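Q: Hi! First time doing this. I have a protein sequence and I read that you can turn it into a structure. Is that right? Here it is:
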Amino acid sequence: MFTGIVTDMGEVITVQPSGGLTHLQIACGYDARKITLGASIACSGVCLTVVDVTPQGTGAIFDVDAAAETLRLTSVGNWRVGSKINLERALKIGDELGGHLVTGHVDGLAKIISREEVGRQDNLAEAANDQMTCFWLEAPTNELAAYIAKKGSVTLDGVSLTVNAIEGKNFSVLLIPHTLKVTTFNSRREGDCLNLEVDLMARYAGRLSEFNKMYLL
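A: Yes, that's right. Below is the predicted 3D structure, encoded as structure tokens:
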């Protein structure tokens, strides 16, 4: 379980397809001594299991395997050597829940349909340092779009964000400068696809409503 609060940006250094699996090595700033084999790390929102870890300076290189289903539903299959990814260690009991409950089980890919920089208009000199960015995205299916609500939570590439507006299958999120700085969002552009995980509570509420309609009414 995760919170959608990114704690490091990693870099893919090895990609090795092998049958139905793809083996990846990811360099990060985490202390290698604190990464155990079998640990879960959210890699741009995808929960992957550490199968090996090697110290590298003050950081580490950890190895993961991505199965065929992961490659089909997420952006992992598009990662190349040099790709930057958002990282988050698994939530521990007692940790601060700064975002929302995130499983790391990606539902599909949301496509960026526009990016607009939103700066302060009263002082253009300060706007560049106080600029926010609005992304409009398209949900991959109507079914998933039904779980995305205005002012609700959504996870994009492992980042917990609040939905700003809804228009059919499309929705927008507004990112503050800090989030742009510490995640991969600053390099995202129109046409890019992001790993989407809808809110867990919305999913269960939707399933309960569906069940009630089918069997109890």
